[in-house]
Write a structure and sequence with these properties.
The strands form four sheets. A four-stranded antiparallel beta sheet has the order 1-2-3-4, with no helix packed on it. It has a four-stranded antiparallel beta sheet with strand order 5-8-9-10, with no helix packed on it. Strands 11-12-13-14 form a four-stranded antiparallel beta sheet. The protein has helices at residues 2-26, 57-87, 90-100, 271-274, 283-289, 294-297, 306-317, 321-331, 336-350, 356-366, and strands at residues 103-112, 115-123, 130-138, 141-146, 161-163, 165-166, 169-173, 185-191, 199-205, 211-219, 224-226, 235-239, 257-262, 267-269. It is of the alpha+beta class. It starts with a helix and ends in a 7-residue tail after the last helix. The chain contains ten helices and 14 strands. The chain folds into three domains: 2-88; 96-239, no CATH class; 283-366, no CATH class.
Length: 373
């Protein structure tokens, strides 16, 4: 935090100096002075050379103009560095981080046949601060180099993660053909650290040479790799955390599950794999299981309770949007004035999901859409 503040102050001073330089460069030379050296030309003929630098007025103006161009560019860059730092600070922080941890030493490594993940420690000899990074190698080729600067943390392992191994044989890697091209993929699971966030699954194809196929963010939960079984293709499962902290604490935040499948270009939601069988419970039974009247028991609470939209989201992501809205309509009896505002806010938040619009479109393509809301 201190380094960021100091750098912001330096960028601000640089921008102010650059602005002053631009103002100075924009000023026209004073009358009766040489454009090149500013020596007085009073009482000289209009085409006479300058007594100081020896240049005639035309040559003096040309040289002065050429000299002002790089100064103008430097002043402009000095001004732009401040908004660049404020808007996009990552490159600046990473550059500082690499300078600070300029010495990297191999800490340990894990080897799985042709794959090898090497953990490096970096630090400075004048203090005890250190950082770590991971490099993924296939034979002698570097496939992935992960560097995560954390300027606010001087004593953190910045990379946490490892290659996913086969649950039946931990000495071998988990290899699943997610792309259905006959070439399996391997998986590097990473946890960036923090109170909740974030997990990322890096997916590499074992083609020669290997390449990073995709990086799928799981946020507050892991991304699971599901091998093909019982006629179902290989796919990923994860939770959608769009409603994290929305009108509720993290513990009460719903995160409906869904499945992702490779479409040849990227991973997209799969309606077929996300759908669950139609529920046998009647709406009345669903409402009985939900503590929908908690708001009535606690005057400080607001209707509806998080349990309601958790159930709605679970139903929607499982392919039962119409049933979800029926549950909402029944639960909103007696709360009509609040229900209209909640429905609007709920749909606004739902449409922010990176998965729901595509999943809904897939469900609607398979069966008639739910009533327009």
């Amino acid at each position: 935090m201190l380094l960021s503040t100091l750098f912001t102050i330096l960028c601000t001073l640089s921008a102010l100096l650059g602005l002053a330089a631009l103002i100075h460069l924009a000023r026209t030379p004073r009358k009766h002075t040489c454009p090149n050296c500013a020596y007085s030309r009073r009482d000289l003929a209009a085409d006479a050379p300058c007594p100081e630098c020896g240049l005639d007025p035309a040559a003096a103006r040309t040289r002065a103009r050429k000299r002002r161009i790089p100064l103008f560019v430097a002043a402009l860059l000095a001004i732009l560095i401040l908004p660049a730092w404020l808007i996009w600070p990552s490159p600046f922080r990473q550059a500082w981080w690499l300078i600070r941890y300029r010495t990297w030493v191999r800490d340990h490594e894990s080897v799985y046949a042709d794959w090898r993940i090497v953990y490096l420690k970096g630090g400075r000899p004048d203090n005890e601060s250190f950082a770590s990074r991971a490099q993924l190698w296939w034979k002698s080729s570097l496939v992935f180099d992960s560097i995560y600067p954390r300027p606010q943390c001087d004593r953190c392992d910045f990379f946490r993660g490892n290659l996913k191994t086969n649950p039946l044989d931990p000495t071998t890697l988990l290899q699943v053909d997610l792309t259905d091209d006959g070439i399996p993929e391997v998986f590097l699971a990473e946890y960036t650290g923090g109170a909740h966030c974030c997990s990322v699954l890096h997916i590499f194809t074992e083609a020669d040479p290997p390449r990073l196929l995709a990086s799928v963010e799981g946020l507050d939960s892991d991304v699971q790799v599901i091998p093909p079984a019982e006629g179902r293709p290989a796919h990923l499962t994860l939770s959608d955390w769009t409603f994290r902290y929305w009108k509720a604490s993290f513990a009460e935040s719903p995160a409906p599950d869904l499945a992702l499948i490779w479409n040849g270009v990227a991973f997209e939601p799969s309606a077929e794999l996300s759908r669950t069988p139609a529920l046998s419970e009647a709406i009345d039974e669903l409402l009985t299981e939900l503590p929908l009247n908690d708001a009535d028991k606690a005057p400080t609470s607001k209707w509806p309770p998080p349990t309601l939209w958790r159930t709605m989201l679970d139903l929607m992501y499982a392919g039962h949007e119409a049933l979800a809205w029926q549950v909402f309509d029944r639960a909103s009896a007696g709360h009509e004035s609040q229900a209209a505002d909640f429905k609007r806010e709920f749909l606004e938040q739902l449409n922010k999901s990176p998965y729901w619009p595509a999943l809904k479109a897939a469900y609607d393509a398979e069966s008639p859409a739910a009533p327009d809301r």
